[in-house]
Amino acid sequence: MFARYASAVTTGTLITCALLYAMQGLINLQPGAESEPRPRTIVDWINLSRQASPPPPPAPDYDKETITSAPIPPTGWVDVCFDVMTSGQVTNIQVTGSSHGIFEKSALQAAQKFRFRAPVVDGVPQVATNVNYRFRFEMNN
Question: Which of 38, 48, 78, 139 is most buried by a 10 A CB count?
Fold first, then answer.
């Protein structure tokens, strides 16, 4: 039994080596088959310094009497637009639309807590501008 395995491994090794030499010989028969070796590249490690966190945007000024006297809808939405820095922090948060003003402050606070991975182009993180996001609100009793 051992002799069968040994002969099979030996035969397989010999056939594989013969095929490799035959392929190399066929490649060398073609004119212009020799090519220049590829240039070696060195990986550059980039250490990004941490950026100081941007100051929070100013809180919107709401007319408290209007908000407290108006009935609060059970559902709503707020559209915000912001930029994502290379560190993943969100800046320049702006409300672009909302169903009711009462939801805007909560949406701004939530957007400030977002963290993203910055888009990477050719290995370099880029700033993403004008990212739109819609917050949906539902109130439960």
Answer: 78
